[in-house]
Amino acid sequence: MTNPVELIRRKRDGAALTREELSGLVGAYTRGELPDYQMSAFLMACYFRGMTEDEMLAFTDLMLHSGTVLDLSDVPGIKVDKHSTGGVGDKVSLLLAPIVAACGVPVPMISGRGLGHTGGTLDKLETIPGFRTDLSIDDFRRVLRDVGCVLIGQTGEIAPADKKMYALRDVTATVECIPLIAGSIMSKKLAEGIDALVLDIKTGRGAFMEKTDRAIELGSALVSIGERAGKRTVGYVTDMSQPLGTHVGNWLEVVESVECLRSGDRTPDGSADLMELTLLLSGTMIWLGGKAGSVEDGIDRSRGAVRNGAACAKLLDIVRAQGGSVGAIERLDAYPPAAHQLTIAAESDGWLSSIDALELGLSGILLGAGRKAVADRIDPLAGMVLNKKRGDAIKKGDTLVTVHASDRSRLESASTRIRAAFTVTSTKPSPQPLIVATITKEGVRTGLASL
Amino acid sequence: MTNPVELIRRKRDGAALTREELSGLVGAYTRGELPDYQMSAFLMACYFRGMTEDEMLAFTDLMLHSGTVLDLSDVPGIKVDKHSTGGVGDKVSLLLAPIVAACGVPVPMISGRGLGHTGGTLDKLETIPGFRTDLSIDDFRRVLRDVGCVLIGQTGEIAPADKKMYALRDVTATVECIPLIAGSIMSKKLAEGIDALVLDIKTGRGAFMEKTDRAIELGSALVSIGERAGKRTVGYVTDMSQPLGTHVGNWLEVVESVECLRSGDRTPDGSADLMELTLLLSGTMIWLGGKAGSVEDGIDRSRGAVRNGAACAKLLDIVRAQGGSVGAIERLDAYPPAAHQLTIAAESDGWLSSIDALELGLSGILLGAGRKAVADRIDPLAGMVLNKKRGDAIKKGDTLVTVHASDRSRLESASTRIRAAFTVTSTKPSPQPLIVATITKEGVRTGLASL
């Protein structure tokens, strides 16, 4: 390998490294031969200098092949997964996986844990008593074949280079670099053995990429990597300025998901945005999976699976197959409630013009619903339920949100911050589109574009 | 301390950190509480974002106070030191220290080892049998008081934060950052207990800062730190496009230094630039040390100390006081010569228009005169003696340089490179000034300016 100091220097000075040079760095790092301090300097240089598309593709491929790349060709069907860059109240995976599986498209999903102010699918699933997300690869394959869907956490076998590098980026302020983010996401997704992928790239206050142009840039990088790897990849940039749906917090999000899957055609008002996004993403997955003639047809089929109960039944199948308590899902109100609840009411009449998703996400950490450090335990019951959403008319005294926590002092310390996240104005806010942009290999189109 | 990730992020995003914030980082790093990987990410962010003057001053001061700051107030006189950013054939310290001390100004000098293509005063001194550069602080003080001059290496007690950080910068491509370079240099110099400082900032092919504007930028930073610390500081930006003097290599540079100190008024032709620079720097030091009415007067006194033998006698005093063999200096030709020598001759008539100092410095490493890694041993005898300097008229067959090495294969592998470093042209090159700029707290002036 070329002297790593020389490679760091060249990246620092704006040169593009070859695949062989990147391979030397990533390989040596994964084997423990390149020290963290050289990798962190390299990553910071990447932050400032970026990467060419070729560098990004090579980097992703090297991380992908640092571990096991699943071959699911023995599982019939076109395997499709979804990835979201993370949001507040984003429980889409819990609804979408059973919907898509119920429509006949296998979903091999490897999810993450909550990070910063955003929740994680694994943490939500694990609030279901007995639910196991640490399946072996053999069990992952078996559940996928039997149920059509499986949801697990990243294993040590999948992209270990990314796992090690992500941990380093997290403590060296080198996370926010689009080629590195894109490589990290896609190395894990491409290792899942999928044939196609749908991406939900969040934008707005509660999103990792707050600015829309950065979210589009990330989405374009993700789509480019997916397509260059031979996987059909569609990205949607979606609004995360207010929480998605009404429930924020691990068990609370399971509750909202199950209620939506059970609601047939009568989606609860506050969950309309959640359902709209879920159906778009599931419809796109079903289309990519070859079980619908168009995205619109996929959306219709998704809606049908909710209406006829097939999606909800599939959720129970998943829970059962992964060792979870079906009874907990069947009787949601038998689950023990949070010890403490507090209601926050509107202090004036008007319109709810914004609900700051970032502030609510950070408040969720204060309540115990998220982690400050990787090793922190989370409180499954902590969180909040929105009673109003952006654009709703408000009367003084209306309940805006109910806050849940197991610890009273946490509840009180978070409530001031939660109250301040709601802005009531005297004029009705203009509506904000949920779908901001559509990204395919052909390029970026504003809003929801037909595929 | 604020979360270090937050501090790295803020520096990355272009913010200026407070003294307290920098203190948290430097303190934790020195105590081993901040890991190398966070410091290297921070240093790379500094590379891209730079530092404000306040940050640089605070950073320097923190490194300075990470260890012992010598108090030499019990040694009579105004203590003055010189620092050079390093060059090829730069043996100025060996001449200047005894000259200045002979003129009554105490010189407490802490020097470095050869780094990259540039030589180090310690390595040169240690070729004198018995010469010790690892004196204790007590012995340092005693020799300074007794002899008026002392030359040692950096001890673990002086600026340990810088020592640790410099080693990290060296392996993470974060050396070339002016505030970090300036802080590193000045934290060590200010710890020496000096009252004033003269700086020789090299520019040109063989210099660390090849471009003159960067050398001036570094010089200005150094002068600013020195003056803000209450030490009178003068900087000269000087030419390092060809080696200084005729001899390059550790023992060979001792030989040239002694020959110059013994030459009275008859400086050998090829050593004219070495002597001109030495006398300017020593003259400035003597003026700053209050033993001359002006720099010009200081130069005259310096010249006098060479002429009357006082400087050469002082060199012998130093050698004796630091345990070295006076006999080796008195009888230079008793020193064993390098086992192998090779003469490189001109292949055409003309004028010697350039001697690439960088190439000769790198060739010196090949010969064994310098180090590739910190732990490498150096060959005291390896090096080269220039027979011609830039601007000299050349006849085909004239000896340009004699190359010395203990190892024949090293000699041969370096000789092609050395030959290529000499450029003979048919027209006489225009003369290049040795003194490029003068920097004081009042600002930068082109060329040699009167103080």
Tell me about this structure.
The structure is a homodimer of 451-residue chains. Chain A is α+β, with helices and mostly antiparallel strands. The first copy, chain A, folds into three domains: 4-50, Transferase, Pyrimidine Nucleoside Phosphorylase, Chain C (Transferase, Pyrimidine Nucleoside Phosphorylase, Chain A, domain 3); 80-332 and 434-446, 3-Layer(aba) Sandwich (Pyrimidine Nucleoside Phosphorylase, Chain A, domain 2), CATH 3.40.1030; 337-425, Aldehyde Oxidoreductase, domain 3 (Alpha-Beta Complex), CATH 3.90.1170.30. Helix content of chain A is 44%, strand content 16%. Chain A has helices at 4-12, 19-30, 36-49, 53-64, 92-102, 121-125, 137-147, 160-170, 178-190, 212-228, 250-262, 272-288, 295-307, 310-321, 326-330, 357-367, 408-420, and strands at residues 80-84, 107-111, 149-153, 196-203, 232-239, 247-248, 340-345, 350-355, 383-386, 393-394, 399-405, 422-425, 435-440, 443-446. A five-stranded mixed beta sheet of chain A has the order 1-4-5-13-14, with helices on both faces. A four-stranded antiparallel beta sheet of chain A has the order 6-9-11-7. The mean pLDDT of chain A is 95. Chain A binds chain B through residues 5-6, 8-9, 12, 35-41, 43-45, 47-48, 168, 170-174, and chain B through 5-6, 8-9, 12, 35-41, 43-45, 47-48, 168, 170-174.
